[in-house]
Structure formats: C-alpha cells, structure tokens
Design a protein that fits this description.
Aminopeptidase i, Domain 2, disordered C terminus, Aminopeptidase, 9-stranded mixed beta sheet, protease, 2 domains
C-alpha cells in the first residue's frame, strides 16, 4: 500500500465510528433479524413471571437434549454433555461441557428472570363499598402511576394445605376477565396533581379491582362481605382454594396481553418484562445454537435482581457456587489428587463472564438525563458498560481494561455490531446488575445487553436489530473465534523486558 494511502487509512481509523445496524445488513440478514424477533416476541408474550420463564427454558433445554443434573446419576460428565440445574423453579443454569478442564474456567453469561410487578399480599382479598379488591405490594423499581387504569392479568401458583399445586393464569385469553387499579378523575384531582409524582400514588393505594357481584344474601348475616364471599366461592370451585391458601400462594399482577410490534415498519418490540428477559432469551438461544465448545459454556438465569439479588434464588445465594462444585465432582478423574474444593475455586476465579442485562437507550424525549457522548442508541447494536452503579460508581463491578480489550477482539472478529453506554449522567441516578455478585469470585465481568426505552414501565421497547445482534454477541463470547491468549499486563511486559521483579 502506498505510504500516503496508508497514512490516510490510519487517520480515518483514529475516530470511533458507529453506523445503524440496519445499514450494515443485507437482505438475508434482515430476514433473520425479523424472524428471530418474532420468536422472541412469542416467548415474551408467554413468559411473564420468573416461574414461567424458568419452565420455558427447561422445556427448551429438554428439546435440545439437555438433561437435568439429577438424571445423570453416577455417570459423570464428559465433554459435549449438556445439562441444566433448576433452583426452586425460579432460577436455572444451562451448561455445555467443554473439552478443557473446569479448572481453566467457564465462559458464563448471567441474566435475571424477574421483572418489576405487583405481588398480592399474604392476606390480599377484602371488600369495601360492595367491591372486592386485592391488596398488593409492588416489586422492584416502578413508577406507581403507570400501573393505574391499565388491564392487568394474574399469574402465579397456589399450594393447598395438602401440598397440591394450582397454576394460576387469568387475563391472557380473549375470553378471560382482566383486572385493574382505578385512578382518580382529573375533575377531582386538584390536590393529587399538585403532589410530586413520587407521592401522587401511594403503595397502599395499589389495590386491584377483583369483583363486584354480591353472593346470595344470608338472612342471618345480612350484607356482610357478600362480594368477597362470592369471590372465595368462585376460587374454591375452580382451584379448591380457601382464603387461608393465599398464605401459600405467589400471585403476581402483570400487564395483560401479548407483546406487540411497534411502528409502521415494525422496527421495535413492545412488551412487559424485557428487562431482563430479552437477555435471558438471547443468551439461552446462543448456547442452544452451539454444537461444541472448547471451554465449558454456561448460561445462568437467576431471580431477585430487581430487589437486590437476595433470597435463596437470587445471585447472592450459593446456587451457582453449588452447581459448579457438583460439576467439578462429576468431571473429576478417579486418580485426581487436587482437592475438589480447590478446583472449584480455580474454576470460578478463571471464569470470564458477561452480566447480560439491559441498559438505557438515548430517548429524544428525555435526552437531558444522559451524557450523549456515552449513551447507547437504539438500532446500533449490543451495548457494553464498563461500570454501572450510581453517584460515584457505588454498587458496581467495573470491568478492567484487559477484559474489555478481550471482548473487543471477540466482537470484531465475529463481526458484531456493538456500542458503549452507561446508565445516565453522573449525578442523575443509576442502577446495578448481578455483575458485582459474580465479581466476588474473582472472575472478569463485563455488563453487556440490549438498550431499552421505557425501562421498568408496563410496556418496554427494544429494537429488533439490537436483539439479534445481542444473540450473536453472546454466541461469539460463549465460543470465541480466536485462539485464547494468556494476558500479560503492560507492567509485566516492562518488568520482563527489564529483568525486574518477575522471574
């Protein structure tokens, strides 16, 4: 190449240049984007709670010839085996065993299956003014006013006193009734509208309208709770429930209806729970697409991220750690002298992980809350975030430069369209992911996911091109296309060159 042309090319490469993904795709690739998005839309319409989401992926895993770890018995694990672990029907870990030993670490993509919603209280049903209502406790970070005067469906499970489980889905079929929380008419809302948005709707006011037809009048008790009694009779007839069975129930109110295409050109998908089920779907499908892997590939889908990752199904539980230990024991040769506990620790420490979670996309209606130079955009590809957290990077796991460089190489060699984003201006707010709880084990972690509009609203919006590119990004990560290299820091290279420190 002539020297002048070479200098011109190097000059052009000085700047980071981003283009819309759609411009980079040919006709066949655009068809793949739309077809993949349709499969995702159907999943999103079906998987509206963590239980249904985990059950969906369990059935998908079985269809891809995955076995539950318990089904292995004493057979042990070998390269190429596909297994899954389920934690209390609210978390699942999908695994494809690689050719390299577990002590060399995993390629892990971790996401969360829970989403903001309204949970029914343990004693939810009451009657007031001849109306039956459900008391709720909101789950996760919501704008409470967004849940008023909108159709809601009930999803959940009830365990009767004898241990029988009853699945609950009401409000998704055309013939089903739906539920709602009433709002105050604007004619009488003078005082309400003068309040701050945070205070305009109180948590104790999120009471769901559940019925209004009184049951048969009892001459001895008069009008006392006739509507509530009629609702209890309906529940007993259909589900064998009594009022006390609400104590051993998990009922969730979620937006009713299917996820939909948005826009004349159907560029977007709008639906409930895309934070973070869009990353769950793309990660699991990426793993299912792999025929074989060099290092063991894992997709970990956990619960309770929206409330701090606590509980025995969240990332802070020992579910992941326990599953890794089980795999180590199942792959251990009989003559292995290294303690299994040490192999487990080496495995966790050597693991490379993507915290697969959504990020905020630049919205022209609210662009003032973002630093436009460091914001993800709709339709520009999967977004990576070196850190999340808020106000001084509190509550985050910041990826180091070495691992970000490694991910850049993976994406570039696989032809992945990617961008960088962060969660708002420095003092505007922020949020965290499960990355910080993965990083506890010493592994390298980078946040990587789909940009969203209207995050945590009953209707969240994702760009179809971003969804497909995220799937391809996770696929490339779980099976890197380049030979793995041991990383040496600049300080190590300097010390080696000068003969100082490192021998």
């Amino acid at each position: 190449m002539p020297e002048k042309e070479n200098k011109k090319q190097n000059k052009n490469q000085l700047f980071s240049k981003q283009e819309p993904l759609w411009d980079q795709k040919d006709k066949d690739e655009r068809k793949k984007i739309m077809a993949f998005a349709e499969r995702y839309r159907q999943f999103l319409s079906q998987a509206k709670t963590e239980r249904w989401t985990v059950d969906y992926f369990k059935q998908r895993a079985k269809a891809e010839n995955y076995l539950s770890f318990e089904e292995l018995g004493d057979k042990g694990l070998r390269p190429g085996d596909r297994i899954y672990f389920v934690n209390r029907n609210k978390a699942i870990m999908l695994v494809q065993i690689g050719r390299r030993p577990l002590s060399e670490g995993l390629f892990l993509v971790g996401a969360h299956v829970d989403a903001p919603r309204l949970d029914l209280k343990p004693n939810p049903l009451y009657e007031d003014e001849m109306m039956a209502l459900f008391k709720t406790h909101y789950y996760g970070g919501i704008k409470k006013y967004q849940w008023l005067a909108t159709p809601l469906a009930l999803h959940g499970v009830t365990y009767l006193s004898d241990g029988t489980a009853k699945a609950i889905v009401i409000g998704e079929e055309e013939s089903d009734p739906v539920f709602t929380i009433t709002d105050l008419l604007p004619h009488l809302a003078k005082d309400q509208m003068q309040k701050k948005m945070l205070e305009a709707v109180e948590g104790e006011g999120l009471n769901i309208l559940a019925g209004g037809l009184p049951g048969k009048k009892d001459s001895d008790k008069g009008q006392e709770e006739r509507v509530k009694k009629a609702i209890l009779e309906l529940l007993q007839e259909k589900y064998d429930m009594t009022e006390e069975d609400f104590l051993s129930s998990e009922w969730q109110a979620v937006p009713a209806g299917k996820a939909r295409d948005i826009g004349f050109d159907r560029a977007y998908i709008g639906g409930y729970g895309q934070d973070d089920r869009v990353c769950c779907f793309t990660a699991a499908e990426a793993l299912f697409s792999l025929k074989e892997v060099e290092r063991t590939a894992v997709v970990l889908l956990v619960d309770k991220e929206e409330t701090g990752s606590d509980s025995n199904t969240g990332m802070r539980s020992r579910f992941f750690e326990h599953a890794v230990a089980e795999m180590v024991y199942a792959t251990l040769p009989q003559d292995e002298l290294t303690p299994p506990e040490l192999i487990s620790r080496r495995c966790l420490f050597a693991t490379r992980a993507l915290s697969a979670d959504v990020t905020v996309a630049l919205d022209p209606n609210y662009e003032g809350v973002l630093d436009k130079r460091n914001a993800a955009r709709m339709g520009y590809g999967v977004s990576i975030s070196k850190y999340t957290g808020s106000r001084g990077k509190y509550g985050t796991s910041e990826a180091n430069a070495e691992f970000v460089s490694e991910m850049r190489r993976i994406f570039q060699q696989a032809g992945i369209g990617w961008q960088s984003g962060e969660l708002g201006k420095v003092d505007q707010g922020g949020g965290g992911t499960i990355a910080q709880f993965l990083a506890v084990y010493g592994m390298d972690v980078l946040d990587c996911g789909v940009p969203l509009l209207s995050m945590h609203a009953p209707l969240e919006i994702a760009h179809k091109a971003d969804i497909y590119e995220t799937y391809k990004a996770y696929q490339a990560f779980l099976r890197p296309l380049y030979p793995r290299r041991e990383r040496i820091s600049p300080w190590e290279e300097f010390s080696i060159e000068k003969g100082v420190g490192y021998k």
